[in-house]
Amino acid sequence: MILLTNSAPPKLHVSRPTSTTVCFTVSTRPAADTVPKKALLYSSHAVRLGLGVLILALFWTKWRSFFPLDDYDGTGGGEDKDGWERALLTNRVGILVAWAADRMDWRALAAGGAVGLWGVVRRGYTEESMLVLRGLGVQTSSSSPTYLSTATTRFIPTASIQDIFIHEAFKGFEVRFYLSIVVEGEDDTVVVFPHLLPKRQILEEVWRGTKACLYEPKS
Length: 219
Hints:
The chain is of the alpha+beta class. It is about 35% helix and about 25% strand. It folds into two domains: about 10-30 and about 125-215, Roll (PH-domain like); about 35-65 and about 80-120. It contains five helices and eight strands. A hairpin with a 2-residue loop joins strand 6 and strand 7. Helix 1 crosses helix 3. It is elongated, with a radius of gyration of 26 Å. Pfam families: PIG-H (PF10181). This is Phosphatidylinositol N-acetylglucosaminyltransferase subunit gpi15.
């Protein structure tokens, strides 16, 4: 399952679409900046796709073993509504998949297939970002754990932001730093990059950049 896990230490990427906008992105996704890394990335996608198709094919053929297709000889005329399924089940690949499915207990296939499909749709990396819009506010975003759901986002208007600071806390026996936004009218602060909790050096760069971009420069 090595190819199904694309994880690396959190790294910061800063982009500035305009002079009044800056986006800070912290991600554990490895950078595909060389030919071997690109080949590994494409291989991972191919393995995911192939494994997902195989599991679904096993599910389908196992289900058809309990509910077989009706016989059709073409003598009665009319259209064979199950023709595409019949064609898939009778070719070489379909016969091989059906042979494998017949030798699997349906409970073991269901459990193993569910775990395999989770590995296929699992994102394998975490990406969190904060978009700063001068005079408007900030938008935080955290990627979902799977490819089947969208990222979690929240927008905080500038008028509601009372302060932005770096704080420290204990996580087990380790001291971790985190970037927080104090929002007016809320008891709890909003933690930026809550899942990754990057190193202090990254947080300090984000904090300085956010302060410089969020508010209008004093004349």
